[in-house]
Amino acid sequence: MAGPLSSLKVLDFSTLLPGPYATMMLADMGAEVLRVEAPDRVDLTKVMPPFDGKFSTAFSYLTRGKQTIQLNLKKPESVEKVKELVKDYDIVVEQFRPGVMDRLGIGYETLKAINPKLIYCAITGYGQSGPYRDRAGHDINYLAISGVASHCGRADSGPPPMGIQIADVAGGSHHAVMGILAAVIHRQNTGEGKFIDISMTDAAFALNAMAGAAALAGGQHQAPETGMLNGGTFYDYYRTSDDRWLSVGSLEPQFSARLCDTLGIGDMKSLATSQKPEHQKALKAAIKEKVGEKTLAEWREIFADVDACVEPVLTIEEAAEHPQIAGRGVTLDVDRGDGNEQRQIGLAIKFAN
């Protein structure tokens, strides 16, 4: 069955993670994606361990469902090839620093003159304007200056280096896809293309969401372990006797009551809804002590039929086999290019008629 975006054609100049993840999502939803690969410049994800077959697992995953053309964009004939291709494409995605595509002779204004309906999405660390527009950066930097890192982690150890790239993916990739699809609707209504300026720092700043509202409108300074959801209450992770972890998210009264009853601390139910830091501290200490008495497997069995928002912290391998994730078919087997299949994480969006 053709995907919902099967009428769209995407010309992808991006490398590394944010752009390729965005265009992978578009490809997963049916768009035809053509990667423009430089023959003299290696995409770092291609050589990033571990490997499965010829390429790295990251590269095989991010290039899923795409075609590739090699073009040296510094050569006039390659520039002319791009200009010819863009006549037949709906969307361009690029991830160069501001001004690079213009210097190559294939910037937005040039391509727009060839195809006025073109949707052009530029993903950068800091955006097309502002004093940092030409500054280098990575996910950790965008999370830092956007304020996200300042209220994550522990008070005594500081911001945690995250296991996923929040600014790159939730910021860059997802906002790019949303912007592109909004521009597609705009083009359907007006016949006009759009230039989309995605700043991963802007997007990370937007991810502050409720914490941002509390800080900017409520005058409430955000810091690690001071809020309801960042370790300032019993809503937290707890170490089991076998050095695994249990997540406790029993915020609502009915859930916290079941949590306390199941842990054998029913007399502390009232503390769960208290706003007093000393009450939350006492409850956290009691939960910590109780959870530390049993293994993760034992707690999983105990809470299996208890509706209390308590779940085990799983590894990625364990998560892939969890009946909820496995049952929804979130992983898939993909031909890695040599006839052998590779297991990958699939599109998280489910479409039905």
TrEMBL record:
<dbReference type="InterPro" id="IPR003673">
    <property type="entry name" value="CoA-Trfase_fam_III"/>
</dbReference>
<dbReference type="InterPro" id="IPR050509">
    <property type="entry name" value="CoA-transferase_III"/>
</dbReference>
<dbReference type="InterPro" id="IPR044855">
    <property type="entry name" value="CoA-Trfase_III_dom3_sf"/>
</dbReference>
<dbReference type="InterPro" id="IPR023606">
    <property type="entry name" value="CoA-Trfase_III_dom_1_sf"/>
</dbReference>
<protein>
    <submittedName>
        <fullName>Crotonobetainyl-CoA:carnitine CoA-transferase CaiB</fullName>
    </submittedName>
</protein>
<keyword id="KW-0808">Transferase</keyword>
<dbReference type="Pfam" id="PF02515">
    <property type="entry name" value="CoA_transf_3"/>
</dbReference>
<dbReference type="GO" id="GO:0016740">
    <property type="term" value="F:transferase activity"/>
</dbReference>
